[in-house]
Design a protein that fits this description.
The chain is α/β, with parallel strands linked by helices. It is 37% helix and 22% strand. The relative contact order is 0.14. The chain binds flavin-adenine dinucleotide.
Length: 499
């Protein structure tokens, strides 16, 4: 098979397929290629307010009304009940200690709930990626976009145009394209074939993962109540959330879908949890559940789903490449880097990357401004990766003491909420940075927060007055961005959504 196109997009995760739809809408000729076939197992599921907002704005700008309902829980349930999805009212975090059941206390000092919506209808969602990605691919086909699944690429040669070769359904395959977008995520086809240099050592976050999709996972709320927890002032049901169990040197995400499937995984700091290479994923999973008995109870009946198969285990999750774009190729964010799932920043960042590339290639194709635009995409993405890394690495350090974590994490939430509101008000747009990464003032405050955190942690056990000083310090630092009353001790770590 021999094909020619303007833009080849490698990877039919939601990132690649959405990019294809937006470019097609602007009259560009695109071909989508994936080595797999839908539906297939994939993680990276939890949306956030900024992800929903960008999704909605893209649907409006590029006239994709059939996709709009996927931006919120309520419309999604009404329009696409057949596509599995989870209700996410916010973020919930619980601090566990080894060999002890979770012990709630009246002041919620070992838990943190941050609402991201004020009712279910407008809530964020967890995207069940086998359904979600397959639906987007069917929409791309419906629009007349060529989608080639089960296509294994072996090489990329030439330039002006590029020539991609491999096999499609066991037949030899070749595609010429003027521009290539790599949306293969961890597959990282283009970086490997263009011999970009890995830059993972520039990242401070160091974690690995054990994860899967399960049935039979119990709700956390009843276990929490059984242990004496008080839910009267919870701003939402703690299971209708991206539920985080924080443990020594790591954390676990638990994302429930309506169908009864739950996506869950541990992210483990490599210093605290050196890779037990000899252990299977199953052995390590069981060891962690035994070590944290309340989590163990929640997962005591859990079994992996047939589509997922056995539990999966990774080495270091972080990846990063030396470049994100050049004049005739670009990487979507999740190809350019992989960080950690903490706070669910990945999908929103991917959508911001899709949005920028669609705008650049749609409006400046065959225009001298395209190359400088792509150079800007490269530096901007790099800057954003550095900021996200600083936030996530800082949170891992703060896990040591939940009082520090629940203050430090506010540097992230204040920035995220501030940038969401600014965007909602039309004060920022397509080419502004993700998470205020280009605001020197915000970055300075983040730097100071990290420095203060390190200083406290380096001086031995954290006393109550020291933890309170840190809270006050962060409260002052986030003040110009704090639109949600974060760091307020009167809230006892329970933050409702403020319109
Ligand atoms: C453990 C973990 C948990 C995460 N959880 C969250 C979360 O809760 N919320 C969030 O916002 N983000 C999360 N993320 C990030 C999220 O996974 C990414 O943002 C998202 O998957 C990016 O989508 P994508 O379409 O760009 O890439 P992907 O989803 O990775 O899709 C890549 C596609 O490319 C195809 N492919 C791969 N290699 C090749 C090749 N050589 N040739 C052709 N096709 C290829 C694959 O088959 C796949 O279809 C998580 C990441 C990890 C590692």
């Amino acid at each position: 098979m021999e094909l020619a196109t303007e833009i080849a997009i490698l990877g039919t995760g939601f990132g690649g397929t959405l990019t294809a739809l937006l470019l097609h809408r602007q009259g560009r000729r695109v071909v989508l290629i994936d080595r797999g076939r839908h539906p297939r197992f994939l993680i990276g599921e939890s949306s956030t307010p900024i992800a929903d907002l960008v999704w909605q704005q893209l649907c409006t700008r590029y006239q994709l009304p059939r996709l709009e309902a996927l931006a919120k829980w309520g419309p999604w349930q009404r329009e696409y009940p057949q596509l599995d999805c989870g209700l996410k009212r916010g973020f919930s975090y619980y601090r566990h200690h080894p060999d002890r059941h979770f012990e709630p206390n009246a002041d919620h000092t070992n838990e943190l709930l941050i609402a991201a919506s004020n009712h279910d209808d407008s809530a964020d969602t967890h995207w069940y990626r086998p359904d979600f990605d397959q639906f987007l691919v069917s929409e791309a086909r419906r629009e007349g976009i060529a989608v080639l699944e089960e296509t294994t690429l072996d090489a990329i040669t030439g330039r002006e145009p590029w020539r991609l070769t491999g096999r499609h359904l066991d037949e030899p395959f070749a595609l010429t394209a003027e521009f290539v977008i790599d949306a293969t995520g961890e597959g990282s086809f283009l970086p490997r074939h263009l011999a970009l240099s890995p830059q993972v050592e520039s990242l401070q976050t160091r974690s690995r993962s054990v994860y899967g999709h399960f049935t039979g996972v119990d709700l956390w709320g009843p276990e929490y109540v059984h242990r004496g927890g008080r839910t009267a002032d919870h701003p939402f049901a703690c299971d209708d959330a991206a539920l985080h169990h924080v443990i020594d040197g790591g954390w676990m995400y638990v994302l429930r879908f309506r169908s009864g499937v739950t996506s869950a995984g541990f992210l483990l700091n490599l210093e605290h949890h050196a890779d037990r290479a000899a252990w299977s994923a199953e052995a390590e999973w069981q060891w962690l559940l035994a070590r944290y008995p309340s989590i163990g109870r929640q997962f005591s009946r859990a079994e992996t789903t047939p589509l997922c198969g056995p539990l999966r285990k990774t080495g270091r999750v972080q990846r990063r490449w030396s470049r994100c774009a050049d004049r005739d190729w670009a990487l979507l964010p999740f190809t350019a880097y992989g960080l950690d799932a903490l706070h669910s920043t990945g999908n929103a960042h991917t959508l911001r990357g899709v949005e920028r590339l669609a705008d650049l290639l749609g409006t400046r194709w065959d225009h001298p401004d395209l190359a400088p635009g792509l150079a800007h995409y490269d530096t901007q993405l790099s800057r954003e990766i550095d900021v996200l890394d600083q936030v996530v690495a800082g949170c891992y350090q703060a896990f040591a003491d939940f009082r520090l974590f629940s203050s430090f994490a506010m540097l992230y939430f204040a920035g995220a909420i501030f940038s969401e509101v600014r965007r909602r008000q039309g004060k920022s747009g397509v080419h502004d940075d993700f998470l205020l990464a280009n605001e020197p003032d915000y970055r300075n405050r983040l730097d100071r927060g990290v420095a203060e955190l390190r200083q406290i942690l380096s001086t031995g056990p954290v006393t109550a007055p020291r933890a309170e000083q840190f809270r006050q310090f962060i409260e002052r630092e986030i003040a110009p961005y704090n639109m949600a009353g974060l760091c307020d001790p009167a809230r006892h770590n329970m933050y409702p959504y403020l319109d």
